[in-house]
Specification:
- This protein has 315 residues and is of the alpha+beta class.
- Strands 1, 2, 3, 4, 5, 6, 7, 12 and 13 form a 9-stranded mixed sheet that branches. A 4-stranded antiparallel sheet has the order 8-9-10-11.
- α8 packs across α9.
Length: 315
């Protein structure tokens, strides 16, 4: 049995201690710890990295605090459209879904796409039809309703703003908490296999069926046993344009950088130059973990067989 590690995130952005109540901070920490424990438990029992990250993400999707699954934000039309992706670093197999509705756990559907379809990426109604065929659990619209998300949407629904657009002053005033709500997990299992997954409810008030980096293999999610597993959270457009997750793997494979070094180049240099805010988590083939961010905070945690066990929120 070699070393095994799991790393998770619950989104990044302008997360400041002065904006957080003690109760809310504790609730976030508890949510992160629960997900970490669930994923780590799978690894501890000799389970696969894919199953470990799925177990962690299901709990984050079920938690109203995080913008994925149940806690997903409202689109311009006042509904939830969710995206998710998962990748197995041992085979480079991947599954992704975008603009899906009423699926309780988008990560479950992404896994079904990876394992039981001949495709990588399904979207919209087709993805929902596949969910029904595979028996993936669906929920009514009410399940996804939260007053907090609704109020957030109501504040900007009559404008062309969306809640990650930092250029609108009016939005800045309306939305003090600019959070890139995404959840993700990466893991190395005892067999030496790496996996990565990401799930999101996207942007508040998003239009035109907008899709971010989370379900895009190589942009928001990537895993390869030779190098690393990466899950990103941030301003999706920039992560897509810079192929952020795959870039980390490339810097490791072709330039010989360590996981930490490669992630710092992408997050603290390349993305910053493009105006891309956010962060990412990673694990390499030796079980080293890294969590790098260029925003004020990122909900994150790591647990490994080497004794690492921590969660953090602020920079």
């Amino acid at each position: 049995m070699s070393r095994y590690t799991i790393v998770i995130h619950g989104g990044a952005g302008t997360i400041l201690k002065e904006d957080m109540t003690k109760e809310l901070e504790e609730a976030y920490q508890e949510g992160l710890e629960e997900a970490l424990t669930a994923g780590y438990g799978v690894l501890e029992r000799g389970g696969s990295a894919v199953n470990a990250i799925k177990a962690a993400i299901v709990l984050l999707e079920d938690n109203m605090l995080f913008n994925a699954g149940r806690g997903s934000v409202f689109t311009k039309k006042g509904v939830q459209e969710m995206d998710a992706a998962i990748m197995d670093g041992s085979s480079l197999a991947a599954g992704a879904v975008a603009a899906i509705r009423n699926v309780r756990n988008p990560i479950e559907l992404a896994t079904e796409v990876m394992r039981n379809s001949n495709h990588v990426f399904l979207s919209g109604k087709g993805a929902n039809d596949f969910a029904i065929k595979q028996g993936v659990k669906l929920e009514p619209d009410e399940y996804f309703f939260s007053q907090f998300r609704y109020d957030q949407w109501k504040a900007i629904r009559d404008s062309d703003n969306y809640s990650l657009d930092h250029t609108h002053q009016r939005l800045e005033e309306l939305m003090k908490d600019k959070k890139f709500g995404t959840v993700g997990a990466v893991a190395l299992d005892a067999q030496g296999n790496i996996a990565a997954a990401t799930s999101t409810g996207g942007m508040t008030n998003k239009k035109y069926g907008r899709i971010g980096d989370s379900p895009v293999i190589g942009a928001g999610t990537y895993a390869n046993n030779k190098t690393c597993g990466i899950s990103c959270t941030g301003h999706g457009e920039m992560f897509i344009r810079s192929v952020a997750a795959y870039d980390v793997s490339c810097l490791m494979e072709y330039k010989g950088l360590s996981l930490q070094e490669a992630m710092e180049v992408v997050v603290l240099d390349k993305l910053v130059k493009m105006g891309g805010e956010g962060g990412m988590i990673g694990v390499d083939s030796q079980g080293n973990a890294a969590m790098v961010l260029n925003s004020a905070g990122m909900y994150r945690g790591v647990k490994s067989s080497a004794g690492l066990n921590e969660t953090a929120i602020y920079k």
